[in-house]
Amino acid sequence: MITWRRVTEQDFGLLRAWLAQPHVARWWHHDTSAEAVARDFGPAARGEEPSEDLLVMLDGTPVALVQRCRFADYPDYRQELADQVELPEGAVTIDYLLADPTRVGQGLGPRILRAIVAATWTDVPDASAVVVPVNAANRASWRALEKTGLRRVGTVDLAPDNPADERAHHVYRIDRPADAPS
């Protein structure tokens, strides 16, 4: 069973370990010092920032991190993307990592993403779509989005998380189903 809860400051040690995993560090390129993790994840954990950092569990065991936010809460990011691809009002975005390298490639990523997307329609009643830019070189990530039901709607030029990567990002989108609660 897949469940999740908001990340708390007590989870920062776990996040540090996950961010240090080579398969995660490759794409997240995050400073794993205690200070950096507290700086970057603390505001959301304390409710001082509108984004959600969600600790995802499989049968009670933490296995993934999902970040979810409304584009409207980050106007500069929204505008950068909207200048290059259609971005509907009310769109939400997610970012994600699967922590355990032994679980990669076994279908867990798409299962988690499907659950989060389905919950978004209830959790964010005004969400019109989930739109996710993903580095074009990160094939595993964009394949997980495709398996989740998102469709590629364009390729845009965005700063990569890892400076070693190119700027090309594929943009994936799924619209709120007509029968989703509002």
Automatic annotation (TrEMBL):
Transmembrane segments: none annotated. This is Acetyltransferase. It holds the Pfam family Acetyltransf_8. It comes from the Bacteria.
